[in-house]
Amino acid sequence: MFILTERRDNSFFTRDSLLQSSLATNSDYKRSLLNSLDLFKGVLPDDVHALLQRCDRRDIEEGEILLTPSDKNDYVFIVLSGGLNVHVGSPDAPVLATMNVGACVGEMSIIEDRDPSAFVIGAEESHLLMIHQSLLWEMVDASHEFAKNLVVVLSERVRSHNRVIADSFGELKKFERHATTDALTGLANRHALQETFPSEIQRCIEMDAPVAMMMMDVDNCKQLTDLFGHSAGDGAF
Question: Which residues constitute the domain of residue 47?
């Protein structure tokens, strides 16, 4: 049986049935605890009390792998204390995001019925609430607020993925620009010429337009840099 209570450090942990009577009679207290968890904000305790009792708890150490793309996942994990790091591609990749107290992981793989898309690793010693996928759907049926919160979490995941894609696209365009641009002058380099010149020739043929190429050569570059230094040579170019 899972019972939730609060510590002074604003994290959460489970305790035995000594607190059951006080929690059962103090719905405001239970509601305040549930509101600290993303999936349970606004959820009436009575709507999910019996379902929460059927949930399990898992404790993981710092550096311990919780989710991996190579293993099927059947649970949503909610951080009760500690934190989780998300890595894409490899456990050694830079941290993409850190999930703190109240956040959840694993819901996307259940919704999509696919393996996790990232590695989730303990950022520190952490305590997690485990919601099996069968219980997740029962909670959706039991509480409109829970269902709405799940949609919000999924929407935030999609937005986060879109930001990552946009950032990656920006980096890709930057690399492409560097690959085709001379760093000193900002002009197109030989690689860019090899890519664009054949298409320009073809365009001129189709339009029956003239085409020309101009080449410039700077004389006495070595003497210039020997006398005035490389900075002067760069300025001349």
Answer: 4-151
Burial class (CB in 10 A: 0-12, 13-18, 19+), 150: buried
Furthest-apart CA atoms within the chain: distance in Å: 92
Tokens describing residue 33: 């605890």
Helices (H), the chain: 20-25, 27-35, 45-52, 107-112, 133-142, 144-180, 190-207, 221-228, 230-236
Q: Does the residue 56 lie in any domain?
A: yes
141 and 202 share one domain = no
Domain count, the chain: 2
Identify the helix (H) or strand (E) that includes residue 105: strand 104-105
Q: pLDDT truncated to tens, each residue of the chain (237 aa)?
A: 454 544 444 444 444 343 344 444 455 656 677 888 999 999 998 899 899 999 999 999 999 999 999 999 999 999 999 999 999 889 999 998 899 999 999 998 888 888 898 999 999 999 999 999 999 999 999 999 999 999 999 888 777 766 666 666 666 666 666 678 887 778 888 888 888 888 888 888 999 988 887 777 778 878 888 888 888 878 877
Interior angle at CA 6, CA 143 and CA 87, nearest 5: 75
Is 218 found in the same domain as 133?
A: no
Yes or no: say if 68 and 117 are a contact pair by the CB < 8 Å rule: no
Backbone angles phi, psi at 175, to 5 degrees: -65, -40
Instruction: Check whether residue 215 and residue 146 sit in a common domain.
Output: no
